[in-house]
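>> received
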Amino acid sequence: MDRSKTAEEKRRLRRELRGRDSDPKSRADADVRIFERLFSLEEIAAAENILCYISVGDEPDTSRIIKELFLRGKRVFAPVCTGRTEMAAVEISEHTVYTPNGFGIPEPEGAAAEKSAIDTVIVPGMAFDRRGNRLGHGAGYYDRYLSGTKARKLGLCYDINLLESLPCGETDVVMDAVLTQSETVCPVK
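>> returned
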């Protein structure tokens, strides 16, 4: 698929996916199961420095995940937009104060960590597919950040947002695993 067709297909999918599952009760139940699934992974037990998104809107909730990471003695980092195209990881604590960025996403203040220090990234997405492809919001921050990193990439989404396939481009980064409330998909690479 050429670049312009891929971009148009992604835009169409984003329009279809917005607000697809807006029932707070079903999301809360799914969040608990995603939490349990995530913390059953050996990769999380072995991880030391974890970059985890701060959830907004219809994304799987990460507040409980972050609290549990602290309880397990992990160093936790949150993403920060450092310009129009780049993202960095800033270490957070239980007492971190967040300020919404231009997209309305809460961000901490602080110095950016070296990308090589992060061993695991918990990644948001509007949708994922069974091959580990991700559909983000279209700005490319995560793809640029994850490009070339050796960190384990774990995508979180609800069952309804796990699709059979997604259009993908040459700069899209594939996840090592995608977790929903019902399954963990580990694509063969």
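>> Residues 8 and 167 are 10 Å apart (CA to CA).
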